[in-house]
UniProtKB/TrEMBL annotation:
Biased composition (Gly residues): 18-29
Organism from which the protein derives: Eragrostis curvula (weeping love grass)
Pfam family, one: PK_Tyr_Ser-Thr
Protein name per the record: non-specific serine/threonine protein kinase
PANTHER family per the UniProt record, alphabetical: OS01G0588500 PROTEIN-RELATED
Stretches assigned to the Protein kinase domain: 79-376
Gene Ontology cellular component list: plasma membrane
Length: 453
């Protein structure tokens, strides 16, 4: 007779039941689904009664395919190093391909397979969260979960393949690789030298729509790990959120927040979440503000290689966001001025609000989408500086008094004194008083007559 200790089953094994013994099962279409009363999304709590169910059956409308380790090993050619795409907290990711007839109802396609590393920072709980959330949530700006593998101690996740990798690699050129004939060749990935302004703005809008969808769902979801490396780009550079291992169900009813241990990535987490462990949708909004700063400046959220005062991007850049002149100085120099100054300023103001130290003063993600989407139409605006031909509205900058004085001194003729050329000293004058509005805004827009109407 077994002792109670011997017969005790871990909670996570109870959640998976048949999954643990049937990792090599067929696709989701092979089994009859059980529809949850009310048709809503299942959560961790809801799955506690699914001990005898396969996850692909329990998750309503998921269309998930259950793979075996052998099938995924074949798809990735034995997880060969040449197919290695990258590695995160959960483990390494490999490119693969599923052919005709591997799974019923699954068309041949390229896939990305995430393999659990037992020594990694994440484990079964994060794997299960990924399956639960991405198995049920569908949106153009969320990466599609094709299926999973839960066989013995193995935990794998199968996603649609995102051809252009992560936003992080495009902004910071880290661990880039070149794709050729369906394989990964070590070297420099064939991507544009610099992400154009219009592409960056489209990525920001797409990522914002993904977050807005999560927050506004009938059962809200807090992403909790929004960062550049979790924004993947498809063949058309459409942004899709990936890696839901740290996602949490949002507060419901009268609850204002979810209390949880602090997890995420340094440099992206909201200050109130770090201090209290209180998680809200506004925590994601702060993280979005950080990524928007990265898109604008081309700088990492935390960069220890920079001077001390510039290492934390938020501390360094936020004071510059409301002033167009100061903003121009911190914009990504790789853009070489090829962006809409007006759109950049408006995007910077959105970032400023998202990064408010007070969570209640941050906008909802739906408001962020409404603010950013119209900026896509401003990409024909004149670029900052004398770059290329002048087209469309003309932007004139009116310098602050100190800048005017400095420019005047630089233009002044030099006098020869004691054999040296020196500029004449300007007489001391009382500084002209300016209103608060004038101090805040130093530029003037001159639009074509037809646009003024």
């Amino acid at each position: 007779m077994r002792s109670r200790k011997q017969t005790k089953t871990p909670a996570w094994r109870s959640l998976l039941g048949g999954c643990l013994g049937g990792g090599g099962g067929g696709g989701a279409g092979d089994k009859q689904r059980k529809v949850r009363p009310g048709g809503g999304r299942l959560s961790f709590t809801d799955l506690s009664g699914a001990a005898e169910q396969d996850l692909s059956v329990s998750l309503v409308g998921s269309n998930l395919h259950v793979f075996s380790v052998a099938e995924l090993r074949a798809a990735t050619r034995g997880f060969v190093s040449g197919n290695f795409l990258g590695e995160g907290g959960f483990g390494p990711v490999y490119k693969g391909f599923v052919g005709e007839g591997v799974k019923k109802g699954l068309k041949p396609q390229a896939i990305a397979v995430k393999l659990w590393d037992p020594e990694g920072a994440q484990g079964h709980k994060e794997w299960l969260a990924e399956v639960i959330f991405l198995g049920q949530l569908r949106h153009p700006n969320l990466v599609k979960l094709v299926g999973y593998c839960c066989e013995d101690e193995h935990r794998l996740l199968v996603y649609e393949y995102m051809e252009h990798g992560s936003l992080e690699n495009h902004l910071f050129k880290r661990d880039c690789r070149r794709f050729q004939n369906g394989l990964v060749i070590r070297g420099i990935q064939e991507i544009p030298a610099v992400l154009p302004w219009s592409t960056r703005l489209n990525i920001a809008v797409g990522a914002a729509k993904g977050l807005s969808f999560l927050h506004d769902a009938e059962k809200p979801v807090i992403y909790r790990d929004f960062k550049a490396s979790n924004i993947l780009l498809d063949s058309n550079y459409k942004a899709k959120l990936s890696d839901f291992g740290l996602a949490k169900d949002g507060p419901e009813g009268d609850d204002t927040h979810v209390s949880t241990r602090v997890m995420g990535t340094h440099g992206y987490a909201a200050p109130e979440y770090i201090m209290t462990g209180h998680l809200t949708a506004k925590s994601d909004v702060y993280s979005f503000g950080v990524v928007l700063l990265e898109i604008l400046t081309g700088r990492r959220s935390v960069d220890k290689t920079r001077p001390t005062r510039e290492q934390n991007l938020v501390d360094f850049a936020r004071p510059c966001l409301k002033d167009p002149l100061r903003l121009a100085r911190i914009m990504d120099p790789a853009l070489e001025g090829q962006y809409s100054a007006r759109a950049a300023h408006q995007a910077a103001l959105v970032a400023y609000r998202c990064l408010s130290g007070s969570a209640k003063n941050r906008p909802d993600m739906s408001a962020v989408v409404e603010a950013l989407e119209p900026l896509l139409k401003l990409t024909d605006d004149v670029p900052l500086g004398p770059v290329g031909p002048v087209v469309g509205p003309v932007v004139l900058f009116v310098a602050a008094p100190e800048e005017e004085k400095k420019q005047e001194q630089q233009r002044a003729p030099r006098k020869v004194v004691d054999g040296r050329r020196r500029r004449p000293m300007s007489p001391k004058v009382s500084p002209r008083k300016r209103s608060a509005a004038q101090k805040e805004e130093f530029w003037v827009w001159h639009l074509p007559a037809e646009q003024k109407a």
